[in-house]
Amino acid sequence: xxxxxxxxxxxxxxxxxxxxxxxxxxxxxxxxxxxxxxxxxxxxxxxxxxxxxxxxxxxxxxxxxxxxxxxxxxxxxxxxxxxxxxxxxxxxxxxxxxxxxxxxxxxxxxxxxxxxxxxxxxxxxxxxxxxxxxxxxxxxxxxxxxxxxxxxxxxxxxxxxxxxxxxxxxxxxxxxxxxxxxxxxxxxxxxxxxxxxxxxxxxxxxxxxxxxxxxxxxxxxxxxxxxxxxxxxxxxxxxxxxxxxxxxxxxxxxxxxxxxxxxxxxxxxxxxxxxxxxxxxxxxxxxxxxxxxxxxxxxxxxxxxxxxxxxxxxxxxxxxxxxxxxxxxxxxxxxxxxxxxxxxxxxxxxxxxxxxxxxxx
Length: 361
Known about the structure:
Layout: E1 2-4, H1 6-12, H2 15-30, E2 34-45, E3 52-62, E4 67-80, E5 83-87, E6 95-102, E7 108-113, H3 115-133, E8 140-144, H4 148-160, E9 165-169, H5 173-187, E10 190-193, H6 197-201, E11 206-209, E12 228-231, H7 239-244, E13 247-250, E14 265-268, E15 272-276, H8 280-283, H9 300-304, E16 318-321, H10 326-343, E17 348-349
Parallel strand pairs: 1-7, 2-15, 8-9, 8-11, 9-10, 11-12, 12-16, 13-16
Antiparallel strand pairs: 1-17, 2-3, 3-4, 4-5, 4-6, 6-7, 14-15
């Protein structure tokens, strides 16, 4: 067994390695040699009136890597001011872990902190979706958001298109200025911070919204024909954008589909299939999801297998909803990172006997 923290993963996993792992995993999925279990949450009252406990899990398996993995996260969440806030134990601390197993004999291989890897796998998938749907001559990028996820979106898109200019908007001027400076320094691309969302959108060939907003982040009227849009969550997109778009595709199935007849299952914050404990008053505090008609579109797998069309003309507005297949992403990117970390002799070894027993499970 190997225990890898975020610094270990950061030392070996860049966006190019992430794209390599994800493409390998999606090739497996196309051939029927990979699968995944979508995210399901459990929620329970904490005993306080302004927050809720949230447990989430997802899993996947990849034949090429010969691994299965499950990712879990344990959060105290609250909803105020149009965003979701979360922590574990105390504000600013979080608990997300990936457990990786070898399919050949079931052996536990690694426990990996998910923070850095989480940002990389989401950004990498945004790059793959952009590569599939953006115009081949798309070289300008507007970014909404300035956090870790926004950065991996920019880095991944820079891998699949030769960017010449980036504009970034986030509500905090210092954050957007720092993001633009990082793009200039690390990606070698001209970048400026702007004061309004529409300034980051108008005239850009690719728009990436990577925020924790619980609502739309920009006015779709600002989009030019031919723009490609990629998001982190569906709730960042205005309904008018989906009505205007010529092509809408999504990464995959991100949770049990809305309205499935599963006893006790509800669709809570972020449209995630959830089991919710608590009194009626407690449960009323949990935001419910969008109605089902805001639902599902053909997937990346449908594009790869020719069951769905991509961009048809340079004037098409295309949208990639970057949700789904999380379990597969964690399996492939974690396995890739573990392999690289082993080669670099990183991480802390743990006796495998700690995780085995002689009582049949």
